[in-house]
Amino acid sequence: MxxxxxRTLIAAALSVVxxxxxxxxxxxxxxxxxxxxxxxYAAGGTNDNFARLLADGIGKELxxxxxxxxxxxxxxxxxxxxxxxxxxxxxxxxxxxxxxVSLNILLRPSLPYGFDSFDSVAMLFxxxxxxxxxxxxxxxxxxxxxxxxxxTGQPLxxxxxGPGSVSDLYGRIVSKTFGIPLTAVxxxxxxxxxxxxxxxxxxxxxxxxxxxxxxxxxxKVLALSTEKRSxxxxxxxxxxxxxxxxxxTSYWTALLAPKGTPAAITNEVAxxxxxxxxxxxxxxxxxxxxxxxxxxxxxxxDAQLQADRENWGKVINENKIVIN
Length: 324
Hints:
- InterPro entries: BUG, Bug_dom1.
- Belongs to the UPF0065 (bug) family.
- Keywords: Receptor, Signal.
- This is Tripartite-type tricarboxylate transporter receptor subunit TctC.
- Residues 1-28 form the signal peptide.
- Strand 1 (35-39), helix 2 (46-62) and strand 2 form a beta-alpha-beta unit.
- This protein has 2 domains: 35-127 and 250-319, D-Maltodextrin-Binding Protein, domain 2; 130-247, Periplasmic binding protein-like II (D-Maltodextrin-Binding Protein, domain 2), CATH 3.40.190.
- The protein has a 6-stranded mixed β-sheet with strand order 2-1-3-9-4-10, with helices on both faces. It has a two-stranded antiparallel ribbon with strand order 5-8. A two-stranded parallel ribbon has the order 6-7.
- Helix content is 44%, strand content 19%.
- By secondary structure, it is of the alpha/beta class.
- The protein has 11 helices and 10 strands.
- Helix 2 (46-62) packs across helix 9 (263-277) and helix 4 packs across helix 11.
């Protein structure tokens, strides 16, 4: 009787364990290896902060240890290359974006990775650019800016993060759309560009809204590169409502995995990531940084990558921009 009772208890315990295991996602029952989210930028920056919130949320959702590893350098190429070469076993992901992924691939023929080096996991969020001028320019609308540019007869200077950056390419689209000559001036970072802009040593900038609005005494935001007005910035018109829908653009942030990562894994990570982005804490950080939620699965990111090929690719080809 004792042996029978003991066997019964063991069987019952195993039944409970199995029922719990069956209820867990397959990925949550992983081999215990930590999941690594690679950030292709230095620690302490905006993307790093987003990555750590994301890691915490995914870890809680999947019951896995998730760490953030910063691999900065070469305009995001070092971090992206690392992930492209990683084993597709579901333990390594890239917090990628417009620059490290799309623009690098479209601009650099000798790059060690391409669009087919990654599997799309989840789109997370994107952000608008601004058309901003110094208040000293005396321009208060896009129409006034166009009139000013045509009247001066001299190219207006706009700050960029270097040749082929989002701000550089966007300036080329603005120049063509407005029919005014613009000259790009490269800076090491956006803070340096804003200092010069506020001092009147530049004419335009296309950075994100928050730092521009924080310096409203010296800077005037004329428009956002959006289809509609943002609820976060209701007093700033969109380029579309001003009659320039071709100026609508954004820079996105998403999760990607090495090519060949099992779909069962990427789908579970995508679900956990999207749930995290929709939390109150994450939403607040998005607002604080002027970003817009765009949570979606692999199909949403695939569509974005295709749009980048078509839109940014056209600008790059028209201007014959190649970076070696």
